[in-house]
Amino acid sequence: MSGRKDFLSQPAPENYVAGLGRGATGFTTRSDLGPAREGPSEEQIKEALAKRAAALGSAPPTAYGVTGKKDDDDDDDERFQDPDNETGLFASGNYDRDDDEADRIYQEVDEKMDKRRRQRREAREKAERDEYERNNPKIQQQFADLKRALGGVTDEEWANIPEVGDLTGKNRRSKQNLRQRFYAVPDSVLAGAGASTQLDTTVNDDGSATNGAAADGLDGTMTNFADIGAARDKVLQVRLDQAAQGSGAETVSGTATSIDPKGYLTSLTKSEVKAGEIPVADIARARTLLESVIKTNMRHGPGWIAAARLEEYAGKIVAARNVIARGCEYCPKSEDVWLEAIRLNDNHNAKIIAASAIKNNNRSVRLWIEAMKLEQLPAAKKRVLRQALDHIPQSVAIWKEAVNLEEDPADARLLLAKATEIIPLSVELWLALARLETPENAQVVLNKARKAVPTSHEIWIAAARLQEQIGNKPMVSKVMERGVKALAKESAMLKREEWITEAETCEEEGAPLTCNAIIEHTLGWGLDEDDDRKKIWLDDAKSSIGRGCYQTARSMYAYAIRVFPTSSSIWLAAADMERNHGDKKSLTDLLEASVEKCPTNEVLWMQLAREKWNAGDINEARIVLGKAFKSNPGNEDIWLAAVKLEADYGEYQAARDLLKEAREQAPTDRVWIKSVAFERQRGEKDKALDLCLEGLQQFPKADKLWMMKGQIYESKGMIPQAREAYNTGTRACPKSVPLWLLASRIEEKAGVLVKARSILDRARLAVPKNPELWCESVRLERRAGNMPAANQKMAQALQECPNSGLLWTERIWHLEARTQRKPRSLEAIRKVDNDPVLFVTVARIFWGERKLDKAATWFQKAAVLDPDWGDTWAWWYKFLMQHGTEEKQAEIVSKCVANEPKHGEIWQAVAKAPENAGLGVEEILKLVAGKLE
């Protein structure tokens, strides 16, 4: 017998794991391995699994199982269930001080990045939210202003609002009335009945006689067409005004709506409720309800007050006094009830009631002050206040009343000194005491106040204003600087917006240096370098200008310039503010400083030269432009400004030399255009033509050069050459609308209407949906006398350009009958939103109907809507020449000169004519007004 054991009795091989060959990852225990035997290592397990996978021809499994395609939606892996339950690399790691430091650094980086993006994110979210709220306003937003106006309605007015009452019976009666049928009697029956008692004989054409009553009964009554027309015009006028208000015109012109919401909601404050105006049933119903309120809670003071006021409004003053007396018995601790009782009684009884009230409420400041007001003599008032201070020594209001009663400033100072000792935390009392003291003593008082209330910014502002009053200007800024540091140390700094409000208050009260010091030391508070500080400060200055605080805005611009000295946008904004709200010297000084900091900004140089020019100092203007040339060589704006300066003062040869030099050093299409225009204005057509030809060789896409070339040929009578110039120009610049118009008009003048139509058709294909081209097509047919074609073109034009005021004006004024102009203008205003050309048309319609006030209103709307449209000013001036005063005419001229309009269908034609070169805005306005028809 062999000594070899059978298979099951043999010991297991080394590192044997049951089922490992089949892909299992079984476990072993100490009983399986023995006390000194370890299980297989991880490398041995992986090696065995790899051999098994190679034999089966599949991917090698891992310690977590066979690798396979995992479903994307399978999230059951335990490693991803709880992020705090870390496994793997960080399972047994130690969290030390370095990890804390790393986490803190990462957190600071995240916060820094979030802060950098916060401005843009918040601005974008705010814009999206505003856009959504503007398109989808809530009911509460639509009535927000009306709800705010309700804050001024007192309790008495609320109590006087009548109730709706029960409308059940009324509705039932109205339904019953609807069930009844009524039939209108024909006019013929009414006419026959009216003429039944009258006899009239009429001789017909055949010689027979006819009874007048029968004839009237058959023919009916006479219709007054004049009255019907007047009524229709009135209805159309009302609808026209409503449409203008609905289209947003009232927001432009500032006119009021047909309903005043403020007056509608606050009308209760202007009316006094009288006993005869309140229905007896309403009074009885209110009395019953208030009695129920009182019986429900006898200690409810407002119920007693309401009941007493009801009796007062009903005219029963004695009953009101009795009711409030009972209220005082049941509510002895209610200040309002006692004050109502004092109000309802005469002076003698009121004093007795006030004494009883103070006995029950000896700590009530309102009752003590009311008792003081009941006294007539100053001595009696002081006695009451002294008793009040014995009971309530911490009341600031009582101390203020006591100080106000003192006529001698020395006695007032003594009272305030005592008050500040008792109430050292009252900033108001400290400031009042400082105002009564001399400047030296005021400084001592403010120092004591600062120590007593170290968190008060009012004390520091008062100290700065004190230094300004005594003329110590350098100390104003130093005091505010120390104040800001002290408040920051006490964590009592205001927000930047609140400091701006304090600065504006100082400006309004006549302390500009303190205002400047506040802005200087607080404008940058809370803003980092990553924030868009420039935009924030410009917005703040613009808001202050809107509130009329120009010194505050000036200080903001000065601070922003110190931080961003090379920012041209801040310099331009500051210059604009000085131009509109400052003096000439401050503007000139600012511009001189700006060109030193921003020498490459040609706008600042030109503004400075213009100011010198307007002041009459031509040599200084030339010097400024010379410096601008050195800082900005080759800048066309500076070259052209120098040319205009020389030309306006008659130095034509110098201007011509400057233009020649500009064409060599700054050869731009604008310089060539100005050169040709200059020669045309001087009457040198040949020179202008040569320059135009030379310029077109360098700038063949300059449409203005093509236009001037054709106009020069046309002025010389060379029509074929002009036609060729326009046609070539349209091919080189197919998007230029003025070129197409000139090409069409020259053919129309030659009588070739077919070619003019063809040019306009090609123009509309090159520049689709252009109102000017469509309007020119309509006018071409109208001038040719082909009104059906003109109406057809207008219909097509309004389909492509339904929002064009120019097209609607052409239709209303030239293609509609006089009786249809107003209805058509109403339709146009509903479709076109805020168009000055259309507004002028409506004004002209009212002008023709002799409704001068409405015509002036619509002219004003058009001018406010677009002050750059010169035709509006010309029509308004022509209207005032017939129906206005000289003062009004001068006012419109000054407004037009201030706005300097540059556009307009007739305005541009007159202003750019060579013979009108050098004319001012006032002269052009009068010329355009003379050409209007």
What helical percentage do the residues reach?
A: 55-70%
Strand % is under 5%
CATH level 1 name of the domain at 834-933: Mainly Alpha
CATH fold annotation of the domain at 834-933: Serine Threonine Protein Phosphatase 5, Tetratricopeptide repeat
Query: Shape from CA axes?
Result: extended
- Low confidence ranges: 66-92, 196-221, 247-276
Number of helical regions: 51
Written overview of the protein:
By secondary structure, the protein is mainly α. Among the domains are: 1-67, no CATH class; 274-361, Tetratricopeptide repeat domain (Serine Threonine Protein Phosphatase 5, Tetratricopeptide repeat); 834-933, Serine Threonine Protein Phosphatase 5, Tetratricopeptide repeat (Alpha Horseshoe), CATH 1.25.40. The protein has a two-stranded antiparallel ribbon with strand order 1-2. Helix 47 (852-865) packs antiparallel against helix 48 and helix 50 packs across helix 51. It has 51 helices and 2 strands. The N and C termini lie far apart (141 Å). This is U4/U6 x U5 tri-snRNP complex subunit Prp1.
Notable traits:
933 residues; mainly alpha; Serine Threonine Protein Phosphatase 5, Tetratricopeptide repeat; two-stranded antiparallel ribbon; 69% helix; extended; U4/U6 x U5 tri-snRNP complex subunit Prp1
